[in-house]
Amino acid sequence: MTENKTSQPSGKEIGYLDMELLRFTTAGSVDDGKSTLIGRLLYDSKAIFEDQMEAIERASISRGAEEVNLALLTDGLRAEREQGITIDVAYRYFATPKRKFIIADTPGHIQYTRNMVTGASTANAAVILIDARNGVIEQTRRHAYIASLLQIPHVVVCVNKMDLVDFAKDVFDAIVADFGSVATKLAIQDVHFLPISAKLGDNVVEASLHMDWYTGPTFIGLMETLPVGGDHNFDDPRFPVQYVIRPISDQYHDYRGYAGRVAGGIFRVGQEVVVLPGGLQSTIEGIDFGSESLASAFPPQSVTIRLSNEIDISRGSMIVAVGNLPTVGQEIELMVCWLNAKPLQVKGKYLVKHTSSEMRCLVNEVVYKVNINTLDEVKDDLSVGLNDIARITIKTVKPLFYDSYKRNRETGSLIIIDESTNNVVGAGMII
Questions:
Q1: Is the C-alpha dihedral spanning 249, 253, 258, 261 positive or negative?
Q2: First-to-last CA distance in the chain?
Q3: Could you please report the per-residue DSSP string of 221-274?
Q4: Model-level pTM?
Q5: Which residues pair with 362 in a beta bridge?
Q6: Burial zone of 259 (CB within 10 Å; 0-12 exposed, 13-18 middle, 19+ buried)
Q7: What CATH class is the domain 238-321?
Q8: pLDDT tens for residues 77-130?
Q9: What is the CATH number of domain 21-225?
């Protein structure tokens, strides 16, 4: 792939994003306080409606709780409320004056690791909770590995329940050191550590009065200022075509546009492009956003691109920049998180969905599995079952246009589908 560095969008170009959006996922072991943290965050930031609060108060009383259980804000399923655990990905939306947020609250049980992969796949940040009494445990390492595997740009480690260890600085420092060694081994670049008490609200929205030794930001203060502008790839223009627009109207009888979401780089009117798989060249004549005409488009905008000449383009085609082509191939090597109880079948046939294209594939081999406890490669047991993470190779029936996952999370990821059930069975990151 040719290196072709381009500038990031200018302030004028991103003017429509005056309120930036940050997606973050929470992870941690069972009862580490993920749901309580989110409940406290929503409560203290005044993001809860009165009727929601009343419902939570009633539910807390019915369960015999002496105080309001803020975790019920995210534990919405009846089974979750009855068991007091999170077993599905709960999404919540809220905003502060500085930023908009989408939160994915994911389960802590090992058997629901696949849910964390789902919730973290589009996240800008991973919030990993650690019980101050227990420190870094197996599930902590598992979640750190998944955050690393999914190339989540920012990791925020919240050492929770500091009130249960007398807000001791040495306990916090020991956990920072332990997790720091894991982060170094996994090459996680941007890690932040916060001592908090989600139950009492210390360092969530308001600074703690019990930990004057901590001088960093509160949780919400950090999340409002994490830089997300550079989380997308602005160097490699990639536009997977999702839909060809040909309006049936006399007014637009000459209109032909290609709708999709920009997966990488910056596209500008007048730019020379190549359309894959055919390899024919054209020039961008216009970029439409609804009824508005744009001079440029960049991730993650959904737009319609018009070209200067008619080319055979359909769903699954990809528009890229001249001189900056993705890798094109059928033999693909990837890391996969297996999401189904039915084990992966070597030489088995599956469907793969990559950007806007879908095709059949054959699993050639399992190269190794990952031991989550030690992060070592396992080669003496190559069976891949539910929640296993492995390196595999596949062969697709037709060429795929892709980048490595490390370079572009959009064009470097795919999902594996069981043809017989149409269930998603694997999430893959192309190496």
A1: negative
A2: 14
A3: HHHHHS--TTSS--SS-EEE--EEE---SGGGTT--EEEEE--BS-EETT-EEE
A4: 0.79
A5: 349, 395
A6: middle
A7: mainly beta
A8: 344 344 443 334 567 788 888 899 988 776 645 555 556 676 677 889 999 999
A9: 3.40.50.300
